[in-house]
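Table 4 source record.
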Amino acid sequence: MANVKRMDKIREASGDELHAQQKELSEQIFRLRFQLTTGQAEALRRLRDSKKDLARVKTLIRAQELVAAPREAKTSVHSRAVSSAHLAGAAKKSASTKLRSHSKRKA
């Protein structure tokens, strides 16, 4: 039940708030790792929870990025594929022209 409340709270956050939470959780994980190396056993549970929360935050940030620019990504992938096909065709044409001109010289 606590995880559901925690996830709902994270989902309600805006992009800037998510980035702030990401930074805060990263710092908290660093501190908890340090505490764990000094032998404080209670840090282990909090470290696990913080890692999971950080993963949730990063997942939501990435989802927002994908929703924000789906058209740009499709266009750029398509244009790169077309450009690659065009360049490959031009290279084949150039190579075959060179072979033909070279064989004519020998004859």
